[in-house]
Each structure stands twice: as C-alpha cells, then as structure tokens.
Amino acid sequence: MKTDQNKVLLVGCGQLGSRHLQALISLPTISHIEVLDPNQDSLELGRTRVRELSNPGPVPDIRWITSLQEATEGGNLCVIATQAKGRCDLLRSIAERLGYTSFLLEKIADQSMSVIDNAVSYCQTHGISAWVNFQTRVVPTYRRVKEKLSGGDPIYFCGMGGFQYLATNAIHTADLFAFYDECTSIDQTTAKIDQIIHPSKRGSDIFDLTGTLQGYTTRGSSLTLSYGQGDQAWEHFSISSKNYRCVVDTLEGWMMEADATSDWHWRPVAFEGSLLVSETTKDIANDIMTCGSCQLPTLEESLVSHRFILDGLLPHFKKLTGQLSDSCPVT
Fold this sequence. Notes:
Largest sheet: 8 strands, mixed
Helix content: 25-40%
Strand content: 25-35%
C-alpha cells in the first residue's frame, strides 16, 4: 500500500480533536487532512476552529467525512481523539483497513488495562508506532526539571488540583512523574477516594473520581496525587530531590526553584512552553512525520501511568457504580 507522506487522518473532532486540527493545518509538511467524525456538530466545530486562526497561511486540503468507510488509504499519521472507549480498537481497524503505521492517541488510551495491553502487543507484532498525548512531557520547563533531577536520587512529587479529577487530569501528572523517575511501575500504597462519582458532560456513561492516590517506585521515589472539587480549576506541583526543589503552578505558568547554588533560597523562574493542544501538537506531529519519533511516551511506555491510575481507581468505580466491569468509565 502506497503511503501519502503528507496526509493525516484525524478521528474525532470534538473539543480536543478540533484543537489538534488547528495545530495540524499550520504545518507546511501536511498537504491533506481527512477529518472523521460521525457527529455533524463536531465537524462544524472543526470548521469553526479553522476559521478562528488568524493569518494561517496556506491551508491543507481538508476532507470532512463521517465514517471510516469514506477514509482513503495510505497516510503518514493518524490522530485518534475520540472518547477513550474503543480507541485501541480504532487503531487496529485503521491500521488494517487503511495501512497507517504511526498513531497519536489522546489519553486515556482506553478504559481497560487488558485492552491497552493487547494494543501494545498488536503494535509490537505489526510494526506500528503509537504515542499517547501526555503533552506535559514536551513542555521545555518540565524537560528542564528532569535534567535537574538526574543522578538517580529518589524524587518526591506531589501533584494537587481543584475542580480536577484523578483520571482525566491526574494521569498527566502520573506520567510526568514516571518520566522523571524512569520507573517501570508505580506501586500503590494508599488510596483515599471520595465516595461520590462525578458525571461528565462528555456522555451519560462517562464519570470521574476525586481523592488521593499515593505510590512509590524501586528508586525510592514517592508520588502523591490529590485532586478534588472546587469552584474553579487550579493545579500545583511540588517536586524535590536531594539536589533540587521546585514548585509549579501549572495553569498560571508560574514557577519557583531552589538548589545549593542559591544556598536553597527560592528564586522565580520563567515558565517556558505551552500546554495547549493547538500548540503542542505542532511539534509532536511534525517530529513524527519528519523523524519518525517524538518526545511523547509510546503506548508501551504509557502503561506505567495508565496502570497506576486505572488499576488504582477500578475498585472504587466498581463500588460506586455497582458494576462488575473491568473497565473504568472514563475518557
């Protein structure tokens, strides 16, 4: 099957997918985009996002479609930004039907660890490259922090947020911790989950949880995630090791750090980079299409954070929903 090196397939054009679209149409390496969503309102949102861009320059040819049967074969990159349930099945279907071998998946990759594990095995067997959009890893400030934490000493990471949730939001923090610690697993030590299930506006069968998860690694590092309710969104990180400490307000882009060079006095540091999908996907997609790789975790590497969050929350979802499914009803 011949591959069009300048074509991208975007599956899902809702709130996140339409932001991916804004990033993709800005890349000169892309000449054709197929946007697939069965919902006409989502496709119209995508058209609106395209119109929102000021002076975007030459725009790739965009083909708006509502089914996989309408998609054409042989593209360079497929971005899957649907709801979590069925994402891994879509990867397999698109690979087999259309011949795509490079994928960017929105998180959470799927609702079940067994499904994600099977997808990893499928990718390994069929030579497919897949990355998960934990875009915190690509932000220059957070990559700089990793350099400061090098040396193998234990890392103590506390992430907390308000009007934020343990699946949707805290999984990004868990992945950042895994990136810093370079661990192959995070072992849960404590789970104190609020006894309330939070419905999502993204679907009647989608929910999330609040509370605290704690874990540790063989390096001796520890992770605490506390995400709860509130009137407005906020999120703070506290990260420290033997030789370095920092505090970051992720939404405000504010940061302080300290180390021995300042006699451990706190000093402000400029926050570099953006967490907006419409910005981060530009470099991610360009790197995949031109270099065959990117700074995101592969689907296999993402197993660490997925397992910590999904396995940690599954018993609580079962208890609160009364369902026996081995899938977490998250997206």
